[in-house]
Design brief:
By secondary structure, the protein is mainly beta. It is built from one helix and ten strands, in the order ββββββαββββ. The protein has a single domain, classed as Elongation Factor Tu (Ef-tu), domain 3 (Beta Barrel), CATH 2.40.30. Helices cover about 10% and strands about 35% of the residues.
Length: about 170
């Protein structure tokens, strides 16, 4: 049998940011990530990095003669996460719906789950968080009206099988 001069499995399919989605769903059972009922917030322009470098803790002793030594510390995604959107009436209504669902879930000690879905990947990033009410962004002459909305994560982001369903 003749071998091919290359390994077919080594070719990666590079992905685009086109079609990235931000979705949310309140827990139906406290402490359990929902598997259905996610709602998409349209018009997202950028998401924050959820890939921080780990902190390093220095462990160097006086026995070391040339290099410092370290151990891994914690990762810090920096508090409230920034999501940028074009400010539209549709976004205003969608964020208001998110805040209403969040406040309702909070009264029954249930968390709000968020999903960042990337087309072309089998898994998506999920985390629980507390969204902040939308404020009025800065404005200036001859510019697109954009806003930054905030979600404060309450757990570490994790990869799970993406949820295909998204209520519009």
């Amino acid at each position: 049998m003749k071998r091919l001069p290359f390994n077919i499995q080594t070719f990666a399919i590079n992905l685009s940011t086109a079609g990235v989605q931000l979705l949310y769903a309140p827990e139906t059972t406290a402490g359990t990530r929902p598997s259905t009922g996610f709602t998409r917030i349209k018009g997202i322009k950028s998401t924050p990095s959820l890939n921080p470098s780990p902190e390093t803790l220095e462990t160097t002793t006086l026995d070391e003669l040339e290099y410092k030594t370290y151990i891994d510390g914690l990762k810090d995604i920096g508090g409230a996460l920034e999501f940028t959107f074009n400010l539209t009436e549709e976004l205003y209504d969608a964020w208001d719906d998110l805040m209403t669902a969040y406040e309702t879930a909070k009264t029954t000690n249930k968390a709000m789950w968020f999903e960042i879905l990337i087309p072309g990947l089998t898994n998506a990033v999920f985390f629980t968080g507390n969204p902040s009410a939308m404020g009025l962004p800065e404005t200036s002459v001859s510019s697109v009206l954009e806003t930054t909305n905030y979600i404060t994560p309450t757990n570490a982001p994790e990869w799970f099988a993406k949820i295909e369903e998204a209520a519009e």
